[in-house]
Amino acid sequence: MIAWLDCRVGVAGDMLLGALVDAGADERAVKAAVAAVSDGAAEVTFDRVLRCGFAALKATVTTPGERPVSHRGLAEIVGMIEHAGLPDEVGAASVAVFTLIGEVEARQHGCDVADVHFHEVGALDTIADVVGVVTAWHSLGWPEATGSMIGLGTGMVRAGHGPMSVPAPAVAGVLARTGAPTWAGPLPMEATTPTGSALVAQLAGAWGDPPAMIVRSQGFGAGSADPAGVANVTRVVLGEPVRPAAGEPADVVELRCNVDDLDPRVWPSVLAALLAAGALDAWLAPITMKHGRPAQLLTVLGHHETAADLRRLIFELTPTFGVRWQTWHREILDREWQQVLVRGHPVAVKIGRRDGRQVTIQPEWRDVESAAAALDVPARVVLAEAQRGVRRLT
Predict the structure, then answer these.
(1) Over the range 338-373, which residues count as b (16 or more CB within 10 Å of their CB) and which as e?
(2) pTM: predicted TM-score of the whole model, two decimal places
(3) Which residues have C-beta within 8 Å of that of residue 245, sequence separation ≥ 6?
């Protein structure tokens, strides 16, 4: 399954949570995760509301006894998440969201990330929003997502440090780290929050228009405000990727990680396992990491529906602590196989065509090697004769 996150009006944690549940995420799993991370001190409810006359689901977190503004630090929030008994992927992604915000806040305040104390982001309802959204995403099978342009809003917003222009510095800082496209959008108010921007940054692997898909469901998450003339909602569209015919542009996912601590003798088995698991291709390139350490850049190409399994396999087979990914457009040639004889030895040849016109010929190298060994001639000789043989047939 793949997803498109429509944030052109704006996005906040509660809006994204409502949209995901409205689209079919497991509501009971979300409620259980919120209760677990808050030790029973928070509860999330979902209500059908109208926004500019448009039906949407409003997620509301209630936290009896919680202070209006909490100043929890990153370590405390991470501890709450780690002790909640959440699935590993949910816990890791939730921590990543707060770590991203923490790193941005640390840069803005000129301090170490361990010394950052969150204001609104540290409140229990925000923690519940983050864990709830990631749990909802997990219940949907962790779909590969494309994010739209993000509506920031205009005007001023009151934060823990006083009034600030929209976008708030934390929002701009988070989005600067992701390369997400933005615009002011239609709302004369803060339309995107730090939590919303960090969640979209964590979930979206690419930015742009809706990917080619067969739509299965959609959900609308309501914002707190109901301004006139604009439906203040975040939308999530879920569907199955469309496999285009050969020769038509197709989207593929590219996964990457840097590894500097794996015995080089292990790499051939890693690449073989990734290809066996459905990767379209997998390769290594030598790089130099920080402190001058030599390392390998692992790159894996796959379809959207296999990307989650490939990520899990990368974590299992290598000691990496993180995998990054993005979506690329790809055009492939129409392909056909023919067989030619080189001095009596069969060699399979792959022919690539575009719009019916032959554009490339590639003999199968293993067949070339076998024929060269049997004939006791250089492989380049067999290669040239195989290519000439195909040209006579086409």
Answers:
(1) eebebeebebbbebbbeeeeeeebebbeebbebbbe
(2) 0.66
(3) none
Fill in the DSSP letter of residue 48: E
Tell me if 138 sits within 8 A of 145, measured CB to CB.
no
H helix runs in the chain, sequence order: 13-23, 27-37, 74-82, 88-109, 124-139, 169-178, 194-203, 267-276, 304-317, 365-375, 379-393
The token pair that represents 250 in the structure block: 């197709």
C-alpha gyration radius of the chain:
26
Sign of the four-CA dihedral 26, 29, 33, 35: positive
DSSP state of 26: -
- What is the rounded average pLDDT of the residues 110-124? 62
Query: Where along the chain do its domains lie?
Result: 2-241, 249-331, 334-393
**pLDDT classification of 63: cutoffs 50, 70, 90:** confident
In the chain, the amino acid numbered 57 is L
Residue 377: HSE in the Cβ half-sphere, 13 Å Cα cutoff: 12
Alpha-carbon distance 281 to 293, whole Å?
26
C-alpha 1: how far from chain center: 12
Stretch 280-296: mean pLDDT, rounded?
A: 93
Asked if residue 38 lies in contact with residue 237, where contact means CB atoms within 8 angstroms, the answer is no
Work out the average pLDDT over 184-194. Answer: 94
Residue closest to 161 by CA, chosen among 153, 169, 152: 169
More confident residue, 337 or 264: 264
CA distance 13 to 197: 8
Residue 167: cis peptide before it, omega within 30 degrees of 0: yes
Task: Indicate the length of the chain as a whole number.
Answer: 394
- Helix/strand/coil percentages in the chain, nearest 5: 40, 35, 30
| The amino acid at 32 | A
pLDDT of 235 over the 80 cut? yes
How far lies 243's CA from each of 35, 173, 248, 294, in Å?
Answer: 40, 36, 9, 38
Question: In this predicted structure, which of 46-60, 68-82, 221-235, 354-368 has the lowest mean pLDDT?
Answer: 68-82
Domain covering 249-331 in this structure, CATH number: 3.30.70.1380
